[in-house]
Design brief:
This protein has 351 residues and is an alpha/beta fold. It folds into two domains: 1-57 and 195-220 and 260-351, Rossmann fold; 69-191 and 224-257, no CATH class. 32% of the residues lie in helices and 13% in strands. The protein has helices at residues 13-18, 39-46, 58-67, 82-91, 98-103, 120-138, 144-158, 226-229, 231-238, 266-276, 294-301, 322-327; strands at residues 30-32, 51-55, 197-201, 214-217, 281-287, 305-316, 330-340. The protein has a seven-stranded mixed β-sheet with strand order 3-2-1-4-5-7-6, with helices on both faces. The two termini are 34 Å apart. Keywords: Methyltransferase, S-adenosyl-L-methionine, Transferase. It catalyses: a 2'-deoxyadenosine in DNA + S-adenosyl-L-methionine = an N(6)-methyl-2'-deoxyadenosine in DNA + S-adenosyl-L-homocysteine + H(+).
């Protein structure tokens, strides 16, 4: 995928998969409960696991599903193939729409702020492509999976011209060289053969899974709320035109705020989640710069099952600005393997 995602496991995914093991039964699935960019589910699928991807944010589900699509899943027969569909989107006339009005300098005509996420011409192209994808889907020209793929391509492609430091939490005051490029939709390299997967958008506490599943959980570690940091991607995923607010033009996001981003609530929430999920085996990614102390979490989870903590490796921390780059700080990435015993474990504390 074409943009930086806080907490992405791209650099350590191979190490995580080493601890996945084999399916315990024909009903076993790899359940990526907070799928993010979908890189871990992708590697699990390549390893032969049927996968279920889920996230509270629809943009994460869409980009994760796009990783799992094959050429057979997205033939674009009505448009003459995948490449022809991309070419048609790149050739349509620009349109003054929502992105132009809210996220380009044109915003100063409609709001108290001049938002510089995209140059005006690029924003118009984004608006035109959004409208075309929505019409194709509404008219039955593209299938569900083709629709998902094109939305993921759009989310990935806009990063190449976005005037941001890394996420969409805010825009930069000065235009970067990248932001002055001409916007172009780019396609995705699809899988050569289909894999078995399901996709859903839901809160992790309502995630449907079974004792035979292996559930992988990669929660937020810090106060950064994904719903606000990736609000523009969520607008593309939702295909809506929300009422946005403030200097950065955030869509309403607080209803999607994660409890794991609050230091005083994170550990209690994690324990509740891990102990109430039906799956017998749960893999939890976490790092030493998170809200939750690893030793404390291990001690509490040990009351309900077997806990193994594996130090995977040190990686560079998220660096949103030049100061963070100069610090060159690193974090320790851990994988916690939580296995329930024969007893009926559970935690009913309110979070």
């Amino acid at each position: 995928m074409g943009y930086r995602y806080i907490g992405s496991k791209t650099r350590i995914v191979k190490s995580i998969i080493e601890y996945l093991g084999e399916p315990s039964s024909s009903n076993s699935r790899f359940v990526d409960a907070m799928c993010g960019t979908g890189i871990v589910a992708y590697e699990a699928a390549l390893a032969g696991w049927p996968v279920l991807i889920s996230d509270r944010m629809l943009n994460a589900v869409i980009m994760s599903e796009a990783r799992l699509l094959s050429y057979q899943d997205a033939e674009f027969r009505s448009l003459g193939g995948y490449k022809a569909a991309i070419d048609r989107l790149n050739s349509i006339q620009p349109k003054e729409g929502f992105f132009w009005r809210e996220y380009s300098p044109a915003s100063k005509e409609f709001t108290p702020h001049e938002r510089r996420y995209f140059k005006e011409d690029n924003a118009k192209h984004i608006d035109a492509i959004r409208a075309c994808i929505a019409k194709w889907y509404r008219d039955g020209v593209i299938t569900d999976k083709e629709h998902t793929l094109l939305l993921a391509d759009l989310m990935s492609s806009i990063n190449d011209v976005a005037n941001i430091a890394g996420t969409y939490g805010c825009y930069l005051s000065k235009w970067t060289k990248q932001s002055q490029r001409t916007f172009q939709m780019n396609g995705t390299e699809l899988l050569t053969k289909p894999v078995s997967y399901e996709a859903m958008c839901c809160d992790v506490f309502t995630l449907p899974c079974t004792p035979d599943d292996v559930v992988y959980i990669d929660p937020p570690y810090t106060k950064r709320q994904y719903a606000s940091y990736y609000h523009i991607l969520e607008t593309i995923a939702q295909e809506d035109e929300p009422v946005v607010e403030g200097v950065c033009g955030l869509r309403p996001w607080k209803q999607d705020a994660s409890v794991f981003c609050y230091k005083l609530k994170a550990q209690k929430a994690l324990v509740k989640l891990l102990t109430q999920l039906p799956a017998k085996k749960i893999l939890l990614s976490y790092s030493n710069d998170g809200h939750v102390d690893i030793d404390s979490l291990q001690q509490e989870l040990a009351q309900y099952g077997e806990v193994e903590v594996i130090n995977l490796q040190s990686i560079g921390s998220y660096r949103p600005n030049s100061t963070a780059v100069l610090r060159k700080s690193e974090v320790e990435e851990y994988l916690i393997i939580y296995t329930k015993g024969n007893e009926k474990y559970g935690c009913t504390n309110n979070v």
